[in-house]
Amino acid sequence: MDIAIPLAFRADQFPVYKKRFLRSLGVWAPQGWFIKCYMTSAYDDKLPPEFVDAGKKFIAQRLPQVDSPHRVGFMILSQGVPRNWVMLDWWQGVLLYENIFVSDENPPRDFGNAPAGLFQCVWELRITQHEREAWLKHVLNNPKGPDLVAYLSDQIDIDV
Predict the structure, then answer these.
(1) Which domain holds residue 150?
(2) Cis previous bond, 82, omega within 30
(3) According to the model, what pLDDT value does residue 82 have?
(4) Is residue 12 part of a domain?
(5) Residue 16 belongs to what H/E stretch?
(6) Confidence of residue 46 (pLDDT cuts 50, 70, 90)
(7) Domain membership flag for residue 122
(8) Structural domain count, the chain
(9) What is the pLDDT of residue 96?
(10) Residue 7 falls within a domain, yes or no?
Protein backbone atom coordinates (compact mmCIF):
# COMPACT_ATOMS: atom_id res chain seq x y z
CA MET A 1 0.00 0.00 0.00
CA ASP A 2 1.41 3.34 -1.05
CA ILE A 3 0.46 6.22 1.28
CA ALA A 4 1.54 9.74 0.50
CA ILE A 5 2.25 11.77 3.65
CA PRO A 6 1.45 15.48 3.23
CA LEU A 7 4.47 17.73 3.54
CA ALA A 8 2.74 19.62 6.38
CA PHE A 9 2.78 16.39 8.45
CA ARG A 10 5.97 16.69 10.53
CA ALA A 11 7.40 14.68 13.41
CA ASP A 12 7.87 17.81 15.53
CA GLN A 13 4.08 18.19 15.67
CA PHE A 14 3.85 15.19 18.01
CA PRO A 15 4.71 15.17 21.72
CA VAL A 16 7.47 12.91 22.97
CA TYR A 17 6.18 9.89 24.88
CA LYS A 18 7.35 9.83 28.49
CA LYS A 19 6.79 7.13 31.06
CA ARG A 20 3.95 7.75 33.50
CA PHE A 21 2.79 6.15 36.70
CA LEU A 22 -0.49 4.20 36.71
CA ARG A 23 -1.57 3.30 40.23
CA SER A 24 -4.57 1.61 41.77
CA LEU A 25 -6.17 3.54 44.62
CA GLY A 26 -8.40 0.63 45.62
CA VAL A 27 -12.15 0.19 45.45
CA TRP A 28 -14.45 3.02 46.48
CA ALA A 29 -18.07 2.22 47.41
CA PRO A 30 -20.20 5.39 47.39
CA GLN A 31 -24.01 5.26 47.30
CA GLY A 32 -24.29 1.55 46.47
CA TRP A 33 -21.69 1.70 43.70
CA PHE A 34 -18.39 -0.18 43.44
CA ILE A 35 -15.79 1.91 41.65
CA LYS A 36 -12.19 0.88 41.08
CA CYS A 37 -10.08 4.02 41.48
CA TYR A 38 -6.91 4.71 39.53
CA MET A 39 -4.47 7.56 39.17
CA THR A 40 -1.98 8.55 36.55
CA SER A 41 0.49 11.36 36.85
CA ALA A 42 3.09 13.07 34.72
CA TYR A 43 4.94 14.00 37.92
CA ASP A 44 4.85 11.39 40.67
CA ASP A 45 3.63 7.92 41.62
CA LYS A 46 0.97 9.39 43.92
CA LEU A 47 -1.50 12.25 43.79
CA PRO A 48 -1.95 14.97 46.37
CA PRO A 49 -4.66 13.78 48.81
CA GLU A 50 -6.72 16.90 48.07
CA PHE A 51 -6.85 15.91 44.37
CA VAL A 52 -8.19 12.46 45.26
CA ASP A 53 -10.71 13.93 47.71
CA ALA A 54 -11.91 16.56 45.20
CA GLY A 55 -12.31 13.93 42.46
CA LYS A 56 -14.31 11.57 44.66
CA LYS A 57 -16.51 14.38 45.98
CA PHE A 58 -17.19 15.60 42.45
CA ILE A 59 -18.05 12.13 41.12
CA ALA A 60 -20.21 11.29 44.17
CA GLN A 61 -22.41 14.29 43.33
CA ARG A 62 -22.96 12.93 39.80
CA LEU A 63 -23.66 9.26 40.58
CA PRO A 64 -27.41 9.76 41.21
CA GLN A 65 -27.81 10.84 37.54
CA VAL A 66 -25.99 7.77 36.16
CA ASP A 67 -28.24 4.98 34.88
CA SER A 68 -26.44 1.68 35.46
CA PRO A 69 -28.03 -1.66 36.35
CA HIS A 70 -24.71 -3.02 37.66
CA ARG A 71 -23.43 0.08 39.51
CA VAL A 72 -19.89 -1.09 38.81
CA GLY A 73 -17.12 0.78 37.05
CA PHE A 74 -13.85 2.60 37.41
CA MET A 75 -12.60 6.13 37.88
CA ILE A 76 -9.33 7.62 36.62
CA LEU A 77 -7.80 10.67 38.28
CA SER A 78 -5.26 12.06 35.85
CA GLN A 79 -2.65 14.68 36.74
CA GLY A 80 -1.57 15.87 33.33
CA VAL A 81 0.32 18.66 31.67
CA PRO A 82 -1.14 21.28 32.00
CA ARG A 83 -4.64 20.13 33.05
CA ASN A 84 -6.15 17.67 35.52
CA TRP A 85 -8.89 15.21 34.68
CA VAL A 86 -11.36 12.89 36.34
CA MET A 87 -13.03 10.14 34.31
CA LEU A 88 -15.95 8.01 35.42
CA ASP A 89 -16.51 4.80 33.46
CA TRP A 90 -19.31 2.33 34.12
CA TRP A 91 -20.43 -0.94 32.62
CA GLN A 92 -23.80 -1.86 31.17
CA GLY A 93 -23.39 -5.43 29.96
CA VAL A 94 -21.00 -5.26 27.00
CA LEU A 95 -21.05 -1.45 26.84
CA LEU A 96 -18.71 0.94 28.61
CA TYR A 97 -19.90 4.49 29.26
CA GLU A 98 -17.66 7.40 30.20
CA ASN A 99 -17.96 10.95 31.47
CA ILE A 100 -14.82 13.12 31.48
CA PHE A 101 -14.32 16.25 33.54
CA VAL A 102 -11.45 18.75 33.63
CA SER A 103 -9.84 21.26 35.99
CA ASP A 104 -7.17 23.87 35.38
CA GLU A 105 -6.51 24.20 39.12
CA ASN A 106 -3.55 22.46 40.70
CA PRO A 107 -4.48 20.70 42.83
CA PRO A 108 -8.04 20.75 41.56
CA ARG A 109 -10.88 21.80 43.83
CA ASP A 110 -13.67 21.40 41.28
CA PHE A 111 -14.15 20.09 37.75
CA GLY A 112 -16.14 21.07 34.67
CA ASN A 113 -17.20 19.22 31.55
CA ALA A 114 -14.37 18.20 29.23
CA PRO A 115 -14.44 19.26 25.57
CA ALA A 116 -16.98 17.31 23.50
CA GLY A 117 -15.46 14.40 21.65
CA LEU A 118 -12.47 13.96 23.98
CA PHE A 119 -11.86 10.38 25.08
CA GLN A 120 -8.56 9.53 26.78
CA CYS A 121 -4.82 9.96 26.43
CA VAL A 122 -2.51 7.03 25.68
CA TRP A 123 -1.78 6.44 29.40
CA GLU A 124 -5.42 6.42 30.46
CA LEU A 125 -6.18 4.06 27.59
CA ARG A 126 -3.80 1.53 29.19
CA ILE A 127 -6.00 1.48 32.29
CA THR A 128 -9.12 1.11 30.15
CA GLN A 129 -7.47 -1.74 28.22
CA HIS A 130 -6.86 -3.55 31.52
CA GLU A 131 -10.44 -2.92 32.64
CA ARG A 132 -11.81 -4.36 29.38
CA GLU A 133 -9.76 -7.53 29.84
CA ALA A 134 -10.78 -7.84 33.51
CA TRP A 135 -14.48 -7.36 32.64
CA LEU A 136 -14.30 -10.04 29.97
CA LYS A 137 -12.34 -12.48 32.16
CA HIS A 138 -14.35 -12.16 35.37
CA VAL A 139 -17.83 -11.12 34.21
CA LEU A 140 -18.75 -11.69 30.56
CA ASN A 141 -16.63 -14.73 29.68
CA ASN A 142 -16.37 -16.47 33.04
CA PRO A 143 -17.42 -20.15 32.76
CA LYS A 144 -18.61 -20.05 36.41
CA GLY A 145 -20.76 -16.97 35.80
CA PRO A 146 -20.18 -13.28 36.57
CA ASP A 147 -17.82 -12.71 39.51
CA LEU A 148 -17.87 -9.03 40.47
CA VAL A 149 -15.63 -9.62 43.50
CA ALA A 150 -12.91 -11.04 41.22
CA TYR A 151 -13.42 -8.15 38.78
CA LEU A 152 -13.07 -5.56 41.54
CA SER A 153 -9.94 -7.30 42.85
CA ASP A 154 -8.25 -7.30 39.42
CA GLN A 155 -6.42 -3.96 39.34
CA ILE A 156 -3.42 -2.57 37.46
CA ASP A 157 -0.41 -0.89 39.06
CA ILE A 158 2.39 -0.24 36.54
CA ASP A 159 4.64 2.35 34.96
CA VAL A 160 4.19 2.73 31.20
Answers:
(1) 19-159
(2) yes
(3) 79
(4) no
(5) none
(6) very high
(7) yes
(8) 1
(9) 97
(10) no
